[in-house]
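Reviewers asked in the last cycle whether our approach scales beyond single polypeptides. To address this, we selected a multi-component target totalling 666 residues and predicted its structure end to end. The input consisted of the following lines:
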Amino acid sequence: MAVTLKEVAERAGVSRSAVSRTFTEGASVSARTRAKVEKAARELGYSPNALASSLTTGRTKLIGLVSNNFHNPIFLEVFDLFTRGLQDRGLRPLLVNLSDETDPANSIRMLRQYSVDGVIVASSTLPPSFAEAFRDAGLPVVHSFGRYTTSPYVHVVGIDNIACGRMAARALVARGHRRVAFLGGPPGATSTQDRERGFLEELARHPEIAVSVTHATAYSFDAGRAEMQRLLQSPPAEAYFCGDDVLSIGALSAIRDAGLRVPEDIGIIGLNDMAMARWQNIDLTTIRQPLAEIIGASIDLVVATIETPDRYPETRLFPCRVVERGTLRALPG
Amino acid sequence: MAVTLKEVAERAGVSRSAVSRTFTEGASVSARTRAKVEKAARELGYSPNALASSLTTGRTKLIGLVSNNFHNPIFLEVFDLFTRGLQDRGLRPLLVNLSDETDPANSIRMLRQYSVDGVIVASSTLPPSFAEAFRDAGLPVVHSFGRYTTSPYVHVVGIDNIACGRMAARALVARGHRRVAFLGGPPGATSTQDRERGFLEELARHPEIAVSVTHATAYSFDAGRAEMQRLLQSPPAEAYFCGDDVLSIGALSAIRDAGLRVPEDIGIIGLNDMAMARWQNIDLTTIRQPLAEIIGASIDLVVATIETPDRYPETRLFPCRVVERGTLRALPG
DNA sequence: ACGCATTTTGCAACCGGTTGCAAAGATGAG
DNA sequence: CTCATCTTTGCAACCGGTTGCAAAATGCGT
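The resulting structure, written as structure tokens, was:
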């Protein structure tokens, strides 16, 4: 079916090596040979078999893109950016959906079978051990949206969730709120833990402000809504920092259904700034996570690690900022 | 780095063939040899190189998943279902993001270089010629969410958009609306054309009902909102069939911003029933597209075509149904 | 224990490329 | 024109597997 190197060689009247060399960057071929080969290749519609060449070169240009967040709208943006970014660098994403899977062993086996050059674990809910297992298996790996540690064992790219928690706290304090709360994502997620920690640390500096913490069972609309409905059974806080945007939107719907006004009765600040947050019917005040930068850096880092396998593990964090919209009252003054 | 067949063979004291056979389904190996090989493989942490074997077997178990809809929230669900469905059948999705690309040539070349076994084109906005180009290149291909034709040249799986247009029209007629309209997606998309056609055909049977048609520039929130804002400058229709859910949500936001009530002043019916449509703050009446069935059938069909390459091209359409929610007034009686 | 049918096994060639090496060819200096 | 040097080329081995074929081993009936 497919036309092979050998056929091109025969047609061009040269050796197979000559054909191979015209298609490999920086190999030694004369202009004359190259022209002959290119002509024959064009006539035959030849394009080299990337998998066959990977056998000898040891490179497939395949990157495993592993995620378990197939329900959070932000991940559509994430996949878009990752696939485009990888394509632009001549790499191919092999998508792995981890949905219920908690054990990395299967994914590792599969990705090794396909000899991926590297792996990007894109998830804020998987434990660090997950990416570490890939590294232990000898695969260059970057954990995007992972947790920052002072002694990283794998590359991590993302945001400083603790700083974000602080930032959220400051945003609420600056608006004069005296009873605030964190409505977090699943307690097991490192992103939740860190955002909570930063939030509480900052508020510890304001003993006059009452603060409480609860958790939704997932980063999802339903979970956010359910948790807020529960909260509304007792007198709620004046303003909530929600674990992420989709949780925020769930919470908002519960608040409005209860006949309360946003931001007058209850203020909400989210995190992510997904596309939907700026839809005018949502208009969510949130903390913007610079997705494009995070993803660009993740790709750069996985590429660098492929080239230098024992590169020192590195953490790259990007600053976030509050995006003012309509779910938090205006700053005084 | 990776452990090879040869090493396992040496350790187990058998030939390379024996090792290969223990790892290929239905090959002839004695229980004793198999045990020896499995032991050695386990000790060495061996797993066969799928790419190397693809060289001789001609199968990579790689499926190209090609799409250009990386901005429509429904596609997160689509990717989730496709990746899970493929994984469950032992296949691997190689994701191709077509975003701005309009020429299939690049994608074809790339997918052939990686010897994908088949291709799924998942898009309701790409022209039929796109999938046809894959077929012409000799790749088994299924166009998911594509247009139904009476003489199909490639496999198509999706819905009958004309029937959906009719269904939407009947839903509006049944509610007693006398001035209705279609707010379509991009005019170039076959899905838009067909939904419009069905809608108008059905309404042609009701000459007493006034009907109008306009188009948004994309299947997106912003486009839907902008188009509805434009429409509201003149007296609007009583009810709109919007090209899809995300367009509907954009339209809804424009309507509410204009101080009009839904469904009392203006009714909206969408199409897709994406997860967000049932969020209580959206509560969109819409036509449900059975995603899981469409995607399951697409995978079945691409697998069948891989096994029987000259299989007769087939169209599989799944019925849709109206999901009653809050953006269309109740049926009379 | 023997002969025959059936498994099981290893050899060697092959899949579609790449690459070290040495021979062949081109280039330039003298 | 010769010789030394540099470039281009083809050979052959290899990457990690699979598979047709014939030889070896096994099982079975008697």
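Chain B touches chain A through 51 residues (CB under 8 Å). We regard this as preliminary and will revisit it once experimental data from Aim 1 are available.
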